[in-house]
Write a structure and sequence with these properties.
Belongs to the DNA mismatch repair MutL/HexB family. Strand 9 and strand 10 form a beta hairpin. By secondary structure, the protein is an alpha+beta fold. 30% of the residues lie in helices and 24% in strands. The radius of gyration is 31 Å and the shape is elongated. The strands form six sheets. Strands 5-4-3-6-2-1-7-8 form an eight-stranded mixed β-sheet. A five-stranded mixed β-sheet has the order 9-10-15-12-13, with helices on both faces. It has a five-stranded mixed β-sheet with strand order 18-25-21-20-19. The longest helix has 18 residues. The protein is built from 15 helices and 25 strands. Helix 10 packs across helix 13.
Length: 567
Amino acid sequence: MTRYPDWVTSPDIHVLPAHVARLIAAGEVVSRPLDVARELVDNALDAGATRVDVEVDGGGLRLVRVRDNGTGIPAGSVGLAPLRHATSKLSPQARSVEGVTTLGFRGEALWAAAQAGELHVVSRPAAQVGACEVLAQGEDVQVARASAPAGTTVTVRNLFARLPGRLRTQAPAASEVREVTALLGRYVLHHPGLHWRLTVDGEVRLTHAPSDYRGAVASVYGPLSANRVLTVSGEGVRGVVSRPELTRARRDRMHVSVNGRPVLAPPELERAVIEGFGELLPAGVAPLCVLDVTVAPGDHNPNVHPAKQVVALADLPGVAARVRAAVAAALSAHPLARALPELRPGAQPTSAPGHAAFPALTLLGVYQELYLLAQGEGDLWVVDAHAAHERALFEHLTRTLGAQAPAELPEPELLHLTPEQLARLHERGPELQGWGLTLEDFGAGLARLRTLPAALAPLNVPRLHEQIVECALGDGPDPRRDVLARLACAPALKAGMLDEARGQAVLDALAGCEHPWACPHGRPTVLRLSERDLAHAFGRRGARDVPRGRDAAPVRAPDSGPDVSGS
């Protein structure tokens, strides 16, 4: 005889009554005020709105209202809007679900809002005389005539008032407002060409006028962040990404949309953005980015998450590769020298040079046996000689790796491997052999090292073979780069090894690098200070207090007087 736990009252299966099922199903789409705001904003964008106003009272439990100037709902259809699965965005054919081109499509948002609260819709197409008004609560729907401007206003009041159990589990009003504000910020970032406004308890919290991605970043994160982003434009990828000096320990400012829908970025896409930075980004930090990814409608499925925050991509590796290439191209097209620390309180960081090429630098001297002081393009440059030499060595090894036949070891060397390293050896063996590293499983936790890349064999690096194998079988995504970065660091010039001849040689080598702005581990190689900043720091007000170097600007009108903006 089958025995059941005490909490099982009966093994019998039964079908829930319709009125109970409706209460459960409503929570699939609307489980909190944030869901109402998201669904209504999606509808506004699908309606082609250029202005979207969102209003929230009492954390959204008392009121959520979204007003738009979109196409509106015709009088003949407005009474159907609150019905479940009533939608204008998909055709009745099943195959239409496989090619969704809108943000909303299920036809459940207004129905779920009416089940969970009191729904009020006022809508008028621009060509229609007079508006229509819909009041819906539960299954009760009433339609009447009204007067309103073109567009649609949807209001949801007293959310979960008839569902006390769900009401008691809602987050505090302040927490929900924070989430709604963050949500609207994401819509602003991904749809910067629209008017946006968020009002909370009668107070305007967020406004945005139509602009580009940079303007959207300014509206959401402030002008300082906006001044440090670069435009990204690639195959199916558009947006902005921050310069390497603007990073965070968390990935909370990495924003991705797919076909206009803000989504939780798959880890593969976040990793692709970071890999696009390469060695410009230190380990453990993340940039700010706003990236709009476009794929064919049939190549993504937004129907895999109740809130549509997750989408499935048919070719995720291909999309990641396009994102990685677009970010790398954006960074390579801009100069990435960082400004020196400010010399006086309140001084604003100066802009970057006007072109991406690394300038020819003239050595002025050596400071503390490690830093090079140089001048170029009218500015003072401070160069970390170790980081600069490391960058030059890394690029030299990268160019020469694989240029010659692998170097055979006089006697194969046996190395101990961990089980994890051994698994990676089986996975990466052909790749490693492709660039000259022949490492064979010898059994019993051992591997036999037979050849080394010819460019690496003569390096005077302690424990050379162990370091190569350790990096080649490490957990990094690019073992080749990890090996070369490790081996470029050891022989690079260190404190006490510098003189003027070596210093100038380092500057010349750095100028010949493809990516001179950072060492392979992400530390900056150079810092830059304009003469104008120096003049202002010393309080100079003379003929030399004019834009020079990276401060150079178009010539001012003759009657505009001297530039004393930094006073």
